[in-house]
């Protein structure tokens, strides 16, 4: 397979060329942007069981990480401050390392069944304050640390992406079995997956066991 060779004559390389392609921004899309968490933004966050956090390293390498827990797991400390528990993961620590190097973050909050989303931008820091971590415990297990986000920008995002994708429509759900398991995908693309089907199934079962033991 050969990659598409783009004609450089059609490259959009500056903001003036970009904006020339579009109608002016609707006034409401500008004024909706707030610098603190209003009543509705706070309620949206309390209802949300899932969000994605975007970070960047000091070299500008971008990363987006999903975060999920029961609704309300992101604590609204006040109208300008959020606290997010860091649950057990793969210990790559991409998000956390990036925050230390570059505190600017972007959050996208989702609520199952809602087509609109909430976007929050700000500057993050890390803490292992015992009092805060105790308030975030699940099954008597405390997170090792929490991400604190000082909010600088908040706004609701329209439903077009979710309407186009029909993300929440059951008749558009895809069968997970149509693709290999997570472990097999990783092995296929790295060291190679075992040929023996029983061995592969055992690895998949071990992953499920690990999920059950290490969610918190």
Task: Describe the structure concisely for a colleague.
The chain is an alpha+beta fold and 216 residues long. It has 8 helices and 7 strands, in the order αααββββαββαβααα. The radius of gyration is 21 Å and the shape is globular.
Describe it for me?
The chain is globular and about 60 Å long. By secondary structure, the chain is of the alpha+beta class. It is 29% helix and 25% strand. It has 8 helices and 7 strands. The termini are far apart. A hairpin with a 6-residue loop joins strand 5 and strand 6 (117-127). It has a 7-stranded antiparallel sheet, covered by helices on one side. The protein has helices at residues 15-19, 27-31, 39-47, 94-101, 130-134, 160-165, 182-188, 197-214; strands at residues 50-56, 62-68, 75-78, 81-85, 104-110, 117-127, 146-157. InterPro entries: Pyridox_Oxase_FMN-dep, Pyridox_Oxase_N, Split_barrel_FMN-bd. It comes from Rhizobium aouanii. Pfam families: PNPOx_N. This is Pyridoxamine 5'-phosphate oxidase family protein. Residues 38-146 form the Pyridoxamine 5'-phosphate oxidase N-terminal domain.
């Amino acid at each position: 397979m050969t990659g598409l060779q783009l004609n450089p004559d059609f490259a959009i390389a500056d903001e003036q060329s970009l904006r020339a392609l579009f109608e002016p921004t609707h006034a409401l899309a500008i004024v909706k942007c707030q610098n603190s968490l209003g009543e509705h933004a706070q309620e949206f966050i309390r209802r949300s069981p899932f969000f994605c956090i975007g970070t960047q390293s000091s070299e500008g390498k971008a990363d987006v990480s999903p975060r999920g827990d029961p609704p309300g797991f992101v604590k609204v400390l006040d109208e300008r401050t959020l606290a997010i528990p860091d649950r057990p993961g793969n210990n790559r620590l991409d998000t956390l390392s990036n925050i230390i190097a570059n505190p600017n973050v972007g959050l996208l909050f989702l609520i199952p069944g809602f087509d609109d989303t909430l976007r929050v931008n700000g500057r993050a820091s890390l803490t292992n304050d015992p009092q805060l971590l105790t308030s975030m415990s699940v099954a008597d297990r405390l997170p090792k640390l929490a991400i604190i986000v000082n909010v600088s920008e908040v706004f609701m995002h329209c439903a077009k992406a979710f309407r186009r994708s029909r993300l929440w429509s059951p008749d558009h759900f895809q069968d997970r079995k149509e693709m290999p398991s997570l472990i097999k995908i990783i092995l296929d693309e790295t060291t190679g997956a075992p040929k023996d089907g029983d061995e592969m199934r055992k690895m998949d079962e071990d992953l499920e066991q690990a999920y059950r033991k290490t969610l918190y």
